[in-house]
Q: What sequence folds into this?
């Protein structure tokens, strides 16, 4: 539908793997948002829309897009190490690395990386995997930070020919499955989610 041709089995398999890996991922920001909305007894449509709004943020759903932009900005493998070292030196945010839960590496990465490399081989593209390998090795050496799922998924979609602006919607198409599962579970045994906050501001001040 996107390209007017039937994709190869290799591409279909890689896409299917990416969708499976993106579909559900515990209490990430968008899933938690969907469950909070559900806990007020709003409907599924409202909860899914809330999940989409949360995933729209670049720190959640935009990471695979940022990875693709980074790889296209680097252009050639020989520029990759200097590029990432400059980012580290300037303390810039480097998307596609690190995870709030997985401190020793994202368990989904090996599978997606395998299909990233298979997709690159199918399209006879050695450049992108070589850039990725250099970035990964440099980040591990300099910061001891490993890649997350967005790091191999972004370039895989790019190789398939999707416009970068479509990467987050693709993520959403997959993640809706996980949201709906969480929403149904929340409805089945619901209790309003109402966290407490701890005040850490200035001490009590009298009004004069």
A:
């Amino acid at each position: 539908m996107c390209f007017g041709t039937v994709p190869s089995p290799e591409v279909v398999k890689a896409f299917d793997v990416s969708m499976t890996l993106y579909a559900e991922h515990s209490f990430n920001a968008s899933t938690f948002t969907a469950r909070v909305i559900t806990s007020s007894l709003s409907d599924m449509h409202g909860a899914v829309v809330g999940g989409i709004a949360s995933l729209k943020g670049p720190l959640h759903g935009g990471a695979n897009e940022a990875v693709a932009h980074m790889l296209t900005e680097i252009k050639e493998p020989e520029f990759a190490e200097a590029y990432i070292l400059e980012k580290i030196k300037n303390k810039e945010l480097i998307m596609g690395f690190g995870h709030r839960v997985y401190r020793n590496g994202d368990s989904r990465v090996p599978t997606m990386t395998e299909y990233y490399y298979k997709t690159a081989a199918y399209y006879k593209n050695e450049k992108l995997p070589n850039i990725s390998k250099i970035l990964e090795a440099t980040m591990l050496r300099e910061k001891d930070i490993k890649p997350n799922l967005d790091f191999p998924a972004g370039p895989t979609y790019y190789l398939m020919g999707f416009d970068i602006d479509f990467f987050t919607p693709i993520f959403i198409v997959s993640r809706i499955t996980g949201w709906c599962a969480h929403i149904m579970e929340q409805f089945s045994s619901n209790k309003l989610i109402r966290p407490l906050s701890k005040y850490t501001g200035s001490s009590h001040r009298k009004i004069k």
